[in-house]
Model the fold of this input.
Amino acid sequence: MRSSPSSPSQALRAALLPLLGTPLLALAQTAPPPDTTLPPVVVTGNPLDSDGIATPNSVLAGPGLVLRRGSSLGETLSGLPGVSSSYFGPNANRPVIRGQDGDRIRVLNNAGATLDASALSFDHAVPIDPLVVERLEVLRGPAALLYGGSAVGGVVNAIDNRIPKAAIDGVGGALELRGGGAARERSAGALVEAGGNGLAIHADVFARKTDDLRVPDFDRPVDGGGTERRDRIVNSASDAKGGALGASMQWDHGYLGASVDTYRNDYGIVAEDDVLIRMRRDKFALAGEWRDLGGPIRSVRARLQATDYQHQEVEGTGEVGTTFKNKGSDGRLEFEHAPLGDLKGVFGLQAEHARFEALGEEAFVPSTTSDQFALFAHEELKLQGASRLSFGARVERHRIESEGDAGAADPKFGDALSRRYTAGSAAVGGVWDLAPAFGSGWQLNGNLAYTERAPTNYELFANGVHIATAAFERGDAELGKEKGSNLDLALEWKSGHDRLRAGAFVSNFSNYIALLRTGEPDFVNDEGEAFQVYAFQGVKARLSGFELEGAWRVLEGARTVDLEAQLDAVRATNRSTGEPLPRIAPLRVKLGAAYGLEGWTLRGEVVRAQKQDRVPDDDEPTAGYTLINLALSKRLAWDGNDALFFVKLDNLTDRLAYNAGSVATVRDLAPLPGRSLSAGLRVAF
Done:
């Protein structure tokens, strides 16, 4: 006899209730507050606004985002299912999704390109501060092709309301203050929004300052061999600030608006004791939407932005060693067509132009000009009940031009070159409602994708010593497109606050572009320093893994108790050599619990990362570790206002731990944060 829809929940409660007498174990940070009802997930990266779209995704917003906020996107997202970080110390920290990093992860701001230099080098930060982000989304599957065929690993979209999309009546805003932690953070962010009579205005500002990150005592390698005992990461302080002003005109069937924003960040490079990155980014954006047009086109969305990015690497003497510039623009035009029976969808075009310059003696990539033009489409077909199919396709035309030695400090890049690529990607996904067979709340998700990625400027034209990796890196101007196929499946169950998800994936590449050691004699510079030689090469590769997660409310009423568990792993192999691929996160386990009463929530978390000894020959294993984190929060509400106060105690046992995703040259210099106490307050009015 088939079990009733509530049977999974009842069985779980019966099994877990005896645990309530034990101390709190943990709460995975993605958990919502116990008094929050879980709505269907609507990913704004999907313009069809469908819930349960056919893609593995994670969404952070509201109190869940406030409690997770770090100083970087990588730190904020790390720990979500399948998501880790590159961790070049606390300041430069890009997301890594299912073992994929760099250009394979498309980082967006309001669906627009960031046009920075963060994918070029591990020590380059993403110029987005989580303090002013309202929502973070991790998107994969057919909908990801709307934003870039290079997003082999997925899309990270940081969303704010700097161009208001909906009418604002009156005045509102928010203030957030944070302090403490292992870096002795002092940060504040504020936003104000006002509107009326069809006009909406947004303004925000933030500032964040940190000291060198405090860590458990460790033996730090020093130049010339040997070690020194340290209790902090040398040269890891930072000073970031920024703000934005935006406005839009609203009418019954759309809006049109503009914004300007600026970002400044001065931070230390942990690989060098006295080098500072001085980062500056300014951006201007236009956006609009026209809805309910009638006829075959239901709505039109458009976005255009211009970005001016620069950072200088400043030596301890005050001399500028290298300057990186990236100045460009990108735009997209998106059309939603009228439903064709049960089929609805969008199609559009996207264009991007960027002028990249690397100036100085330590530049290892020549100045380049890149142009991209793309056509894309995403369709969704409703089937019986809640089941649906989705389809995505994208064709991109790339042109990348190197200036060679023109303007280079040293003649090492050769003649000017131009490379052109046409890359095509397609994906199909499905959500199948299993309620008729298994009971309410069960569904099966699946995605099958073929992707092509054009090589980047550094994969094609690099030729020089890269200080961040302590290697001589050489590109290959004859590289072909990276080609891969991906399959992922997931079984999900949801019922109120309770949920289960079990998923697995496999990705195969016929021309995976990897930076590999050549075995050539070391390159010796003018100062007599020797550097191993690495080259970008296309190899066969496979990445596979699984993600398990569950959440259960085991006590409901005036008091609530929620439990969570999470397990994920990635296995990545260079099939051309049989070696593992580098910088892959180990198997990770999280166990958690939260106790709620009258707006108070006591949370705990135990995080276990296993030893990562599956590494290539030129890397070293990373030891496993167990971290315990605690948090106490209080939610208040009055006269339409609300506030969240929290205190966090991280790494309770002061455990020395290292990130397996860090590049080998910096891993031993930059342990994870030690025991720390922090507090924060967010007030919305």
